[in-house]
Amino acid sequence: MDLSTKRRLVQADENEELSDYRKHKLLGISRSYKYYEAKVNEKKIKIKQRIKEISEDEFMCVYGEVKVWKQLLSEGYQVSLNTVSKYRKEMGIKAILAVKPVFTTIPNSNDKKYPYKLKGVDIDRPNKVWSADITYVKTKFGTVYLAAVIDWYSKAILSWKISNIMDTDFVMDVLENALKKHPKPDIFNTDQGSQYTSYIHTKTLKENGIEISMDSKGRATDNIAIERFWRSAKVERIYLNEYNSISELREDIKNYINFYNNQRFHQSLNYKKPMEVYNEWLENNINKTKKAVKFFRKVA
Questions:
Q1: For 207-227, how does the pLDDT look when each residue is reduced to its tens digit (9 = 90+)?
Q2: Where does the signal sequence lie (predicted)?
Q3: Is the pLDDT of residue 127 over 60?
Q4: Measured distance CA(166)–CA(146) in Å, rounded
Q5: Where are the domain boundaries for CATH 3.30.420.10 in the chain?
Q6: Which of 19, 149, 173, 239 could form a disulfide with 178 if both were Cys (CB 3.0 to 4.6 A apart)?
């Protein structure tokens, strides 16, 4: 007789003359299984409840099973990926995603074009390569443009802005804000859009000692880091909502970028978060530099 059959006999036995202790002893099973099963069921209920909450979260609702699993682990839950997958299927939960076409900027044939310089480059630290791009969002109040700068190593968004005008001032604000807040990059990559080939934009990069790189004509994949961010922002957030004003859109994008930088697990970063990777590298290397300075001072 197997263990599960014995347990059913104990539960089904209506003979009150035998105590629980006697029933379990006669069948040779421990009474602790009831406590164990209760604990297992309690754990299962808690995990399922948290999975449900994640699926209903305004940002994490886009998570697939791996990111849900990573989120649970980060919160202290002890659960396997297979169990998360099983529970999601039992609950009928799927990630919420949306898809719409992409947009590219328009080149100016009179401006100088720079060669693509990222081929074969070993991007082994933050601020080695930044890239920038513009995309757009169609709303009930007209077309709104979104520009951003991304760090290739950490995938962190370092600066961004939205506007209803796509001009040089627009991209200059984003560039200058990034340079003000962060150490400057070695290389800055963009497409061949007129805003990025403009005199003022290229001049600013040169004055800061930054090497200019531009995508080959018609090759959006040359700027893949920021193209992937646009896809994530649109599929996971923007296309799932309707906005009544530019201020409402701006606030939602701000919230999404904060989520993306500081909370969203990134597969290519071994499921770390972009700003976690960016800051961790900088802090570690600042500490190394300080230790080296102290050492050389002692030697001197």
A1: 999 999 998 765 556 788 898
A2: none
A3: yes
A4: 9
A5: 129-281
A6: 149
